[in-house]
Design brief:
By secondary structure, the protein is mainly alpha-helical. It contains three helices and two strands, in the order ααββα.
């Protein structure tokens, strides 16, 4: 059943279908965001342990300048902040969905 054909006759059903689609989008993008955040957190732990960025044996796509010592610890701290923001994205997305839909599935 397509949302366009239902919207004319049954607008409440179309709204619920749109809410379900938005919920799927939020859940799937939240899962991807959490996985990327976890990867960045693990890389930040390696950087902090080795005190060099990028860590040894980590493949890089571009020529990357090596930093060591305090500069590497700053890079690790920045990676952790980005990981935290990526972990919070699903919570914010679900909050937005709940605010928009009223929690109606």
């Amino acid at each position: 059943m397509e949302i366009n054909t239902v919207a004319d006759r049954y607008p409440d059903v179309a709204i619920r279908m749109g809410n379900r689609l938005l919920l799927w989008l939020v859940v799937l993008s939240g899962a991807v965001s959490a996985v990327i955040g976890s990867y960045l957190y693990l890389v930040s732990l390696r950087i902090a342990h080795e005190r060099q960025s990028p860590p040894a044996a980590l493949p890089v796509a571009f020529r990357t300048r090596m930093v060591a010592g305090e500069a590497a610890l700053r890079v690790a701290r920045n990676y952790r902040w980005v990981a935290l923001l990526l972990w919070l994205q699903p919570v914010a997305g679900l909050g937005f969905w709940f605010w928009l839909s009223g929690g109606v599935i």
